[in-house]
Structure prediction request, 457 residues.
Amino acid sequence: MGSWPDDVGILALELVVPPQYVDQTDLEIQDGVSAGKYTIGLGQSKMAFCSDREDVNSLCLTAVARLMEKHNIRYEDIGRLEVGTETIIDKSKSVKSVLMQLFEDSGNTDIEGIDTTNACYGGTAALFNCAAWLESSAWDGRLALAVAADIAVYAEGSARPTGGAGAVAILLGPNAPLVLERRVRASHMQHAYDFYKPDPRCEYPVVDGKLSIKCYLSALDKCYRLYCSKQEKLNNNSRRVGLASLDAMLFHSPYCKLVQKSLARIVFNDFLIRSADPTRNADDVPLNASLQRFANLRLEDTYLDRDVEKAFVEESRAEFERKTQPSLLVAREVGNMYTPSLYGGLISHLVATPRSRLVDSRIGLFSYGSGLAATMYSLRVREPGLDSLLAGLSHVTQMLDSRQKVPADKFCARMRERESVHLVAPYEPKDSVDLLLPGTYYLTNIDEQYRRSYTRK
Prediction:
């Protein structure tokens, strides 16, 4: 253990989102649903979507290039690069191999890592693999890059407003301001058909909505309890670990309302544990007598229980507003980015939280990918390097505010066009590049052999 580099974790982050969005209120009107169904029911405000100039490769190219330039990182200083994505545009060639174009001038081709895929979990797997390389015998002293990127699109109907798009590039190395805490990571892996993409001719997934929620909450229960158990063992079982031990709790966000229910679920778990053994109270807060009717319930019987959900959403409201709500800026404004979703939440938390509250805090993170794969882990915030990390994110709010609103009918037309050109080659993109920010990579051509070409604005 003494040979590990110190404080391995996140040195810098970069967020990229498309420059156009559809307003969820407008989409409610367009879809003919009741007012508030998407905005209140799902907790969403806006949804980013891509023009035909943007694909998963261009999002990743932009994210990596901006991060490297902003933080003055040399391309020869990267020893591992791994991409997490479920937006597959080639069944063989990795997105990582496309990103190697950025390294050509440096002459650096000695870079490990490829793509990792399992629904929304791929970005977390890429991050863990990068951290494992940094702590392994293969590490040669260089830095690592994990990139998470996806374009989430759904068929017309109730699932469409849960889409989104974006990319997050994550620079990892030793002596980081966001340190990956060791020996407390807790995972749950299981076979399930809650969400999957069996047809390569179609971008849209097959979704079982109720099963998806059940799988998500079940994985959360298992990961949270195991995470707490591992933390307690590290503490020599001197005190029960619960939500009180974390200063923030972030979640993968299919939609914001599910995140609020997830924080409530953690409070429900704490409640059941404390009810079973009141002497093992983690935070010395008296049990709420009005909740005692839930004390003997089994977790597996409550995934779709509206009474439990309502009671613990209300019970956890103050904790949610303090520990989770600040992390929902990107999710609310952009939508579900799939693999970058959790890391958009981390960026939101860092942007929204005063620096004085960040230093020495502990951040819990829950990552979920359908099918299914899930992990809960935590970050410890150190002061050295924090100012540089935060300075690199100072543009986020302005970037979100500068996007162009597109009428809902034009958004729907864009989705129909996207369907019609899926797998078409050759193809010449038609959309304007005027909205793209300087430094953005965009698609210029797909030739008759499906080879894609990009240039930078």
In short: The longest helix spans residues 209-234.
